[in-house]
Specification:
single chain; 380 residues; alpha+beta; five-stranded mixed β-sheet
């Protein structure tokens, strides 16, 4: 058991994670490198989700603080990254070359969640199997179907009620079965294509897949706990712990420390303390700085504010990070001549924090490609 790390603080953990995730420090060369580093980017809403890899990559345009949205769009259009349901019953954008590994690691567990949840809306296992077979046939030969076209193909195959929530469950089952995945966008819409036609071949066993996923998770998100990892990837604690133990014994570079009665894992060296004043980042609502840490979520919220003061329902979806921890929320509306950014914080800011907030908002303005910015400042 590692000895306690007595000089660590919630703020230091947050700063360390921001470095591990490449939100701070030396950025990765391209959005592709960011996807590869993170292994999976939660992507419920496609347009906002592009911020996650963009903010971790070097600027690729004049006036930008990080990569533009076009670089992420290009990866989707090229099929180098795929937006699909994996790890949990939610959207993720992942490198195509990693998708078989991700499904091998936790696909069986995610499938249980899908099948169990489907019973409540009248879909039994046999219906799922028939629908998955029909989708395999409908997408064969390079056919890329929109959600509506996929529903029509299922109806034509005799699968009744292939719309709405039922269609979503049928499509998820086929995705986690490694039969379909995202195809080329069509008129701005997500499409579904044949998995084997889009994903590089290469078998990988479950134990090896979990071990590789653990290595990637703690390298890109450490310090984090085993329970953070298990909940992020829908794994059994025993399977996750076995993978971590193998990495520790195998000379992978994984390390451990004890803090606040929990054991955290990480790769590399602990970064030096941050200086230079406060840092404010405007991240999408499902950024990996938020969604990767269920067990240690207490370290995600800003240490200066009691948890009870954070609202159960944020006013806006996207999050404001102060020195790597959530302190409020934002939303943006892009107008013809400016971007209007509304903000709300759980506490007031100092003058230095307000200045950092304006700098963060201006980086966002540039990313949206707007010449001017209107920033609203509101707090509890």
């Amino acid at each position: 058991m590692p000895t306690p790390t007595r000089d660590l603080t919630p703020a230091a953990v947050a700063a360390w994670r921001a470095r591990s995730q490449r939100l701070w420090g030396e950025r990765l060369a391209t959005p592709w490198d960011a996807f590869e580093h993170l292994a999976a980017v939660q992507s419920q809403e496609y347009q906002p989700s592009k911020l996650t890899p963009a903010m971790r990559a070097k600027p690729d345009g004049d006036g930008l603080a990080y990569a533009g949205a076009g670089g992420v769009d290009a990866l989707i259009e090229q099929g180098r990254v795929l937006r699909t349901h994996v790890l949990r019953t939610t959207w993720h954008t992942v490198p195509a070359a990693d998708l078989r590994m991700l499904i091998a690691a936790s696909g069986d567990r995610v499938m249980q969640v899908i099948v169990n949840g489907s019973r409540g809306i009248g879909i039994d296992l046999r219906t799922h199997e028939r629908a998955t077979e029909a989708l395999a046939a409908a997408t064969a030969g390079g056919r890329h179907l929109t959600r509506e076209e996929a529903g029509e193909a299922l109806e034509a195959a005799g699968i009744a009620g292939a719309s709405g929530q039922r269609l979503g469950h049928l499509l998820m089952h086929a995705e986690v079965s490694a039969v379909i995945c995202s195809g080329d966008p069509k008129d701005g819409k997500q499409t579904y294509a044949s998995f084997d036609e889009r994903v590089p071949t290469g078998a990988i066993g479950k134990d090896e897949a979990i071990r590789e996923l653990a290595r990637r998770f703690f390298a890109s998100r450490g310090p984090a706990t085993v329970k953070d990892f298990t909940r992020w990837a829908t794994l059994k604690v025993a399977d996750a712990k076995a993978a971590v133990d193998e990495l520790l014994l195998g000379g992978s570079g994984l390390r451990e420390l004890r803090y606040d009665d929990r054991v955290f894992y990480y790769e590399g060296e602990r970064p030096e303390p941050e200086d230079g004043g406060p840092v404010v980042d405007f991240v999408q609502g499902y950024d990996e700085m938020l969604c990767s840490y269920t067990d240690s979520k207490d370290l995600v919220l800003h240490h200066s504010v009691p948890r009870a003061l954070f609202p159960d329902r944020p006013r806006f979806t996207s999050a404001i990070l102060l020195d790597g921890q959530v302190v409020g929320n934002w939303k943006a509306a892009v107008k013809k001549d400016r971007v209007v950014i509304e903000t709300w914080r759980v506490r007031g800011f100092t003058a230095a924090e307000i200045a950092a907030m304006r700098r963060g908002a201006d980086r966002l303005r540039a990313w949206f490609g707007s010449p001017e910015m209107e920033l609203g400042l509101d707090h509890a």
